[in-house]
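Much of our argument rests on the idea that a fold can be written as discrete symbols. The amino acid sequence and the backbone structure tokens for this protein are reproduced below:

___
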Amino acid sequence: METRVATVSIIVENGEKVDEINAILHAYAPYIIGRMGLPYREKNICIISIAMDAPEDEISALSGKIGRLSGVSTKTAYAKI
């Protein structure tokens, strides 16, 4: 099974969704290389960056599930390799 390397950027404007985000990320833990979360208190948002090595459909599924949460947005960038 071929995998892709990607980053998923997540902006959380609704802090009540953090537990749901963490549950989704936990389900995809085998594919996650690393994670960085930054609370931006002045703007009352959280910025999360996820590095993944996974089949493209798994990356899309994670991004889609998180992006469907209200008050949460995602963007995914894939490595060209």
About this structure: Residues 4-78 form a domain with the Alpha-Beta Plaits fold (CATH 3.30.70.1150). The beta strands are 4-12, 32-40, 45-54, 72-78. DSSP finds two helices and four strands in the chain. The CA atoms of residues 39 and 46 lie 4 Å apart.
